[in-house]
Specification:
Radius of gyration: 20 Å
Helix content: 10-25%
Order of helices and strands: HEEEEEEEHEEEEEEEH
Length: 232
Amino acid sequence: MKLAVRLCLFCLLLSAAGGWATVIGSTNPNLFSDTIDWCAQATFACDGNPYPTPQPFISAFGNLGLVGLPTLQDFQALQEGSSHFGGSFPDGMGLIYTGVTTLGNAPDYIALVFAQPQWGAGAYIQPYWYGTFSATVILLDTNGGVLGSYVVNGNSTDQASDLLFIGARDTARDVGAVLFLAGNNGHDGDFEIGTAGLATPEPSTILLAAPSMLGLIGFVRRRRARHSQEVL
């Protein structure tokens, strides 16, 4: 329930001023290795039926969250080659669709809200209509403030080589939610996302944290040694 309330709050606060952090955009899915398979969720299926916003999800590494449309419209869960055809997504990939063309929904973002802060997130993305398009990912902090965004252009076809991945990551693990948007030819908000992924820290980030960790270990050891001498 708290996550559902947060989903609504993030939508209301999207236009609020936020502290812009060091957000780095990427089209490399390998940087977002904690994948979210929409066809492997317990509460909804990739059968083309509409599902109420929000619905819970779990990632491959066990991270929890909610998925849905910020305006609280129903979304569709689809599977390429089964309940969805003609996209550049590979057969079998699960999709979340805004339902603008099929359900008559108003154009919308697709939102993921996380139970615990993340480094960032991304997803395969394609508009419902063919042609060149623009895709956007927006990272929000745990209070709904905008951390930053990334925009990239793509080409919507039925060819696998044209499938676009868009993601963004922060230099701190402070991402509370992510919004996706894509569209073309006046159809902004009429799109699907495929397999999503959560970012994991880069090795350089871990190396930067190592000296602080070693210093903390040394401090604890000195305190323990001092305490042992006082006891003796």
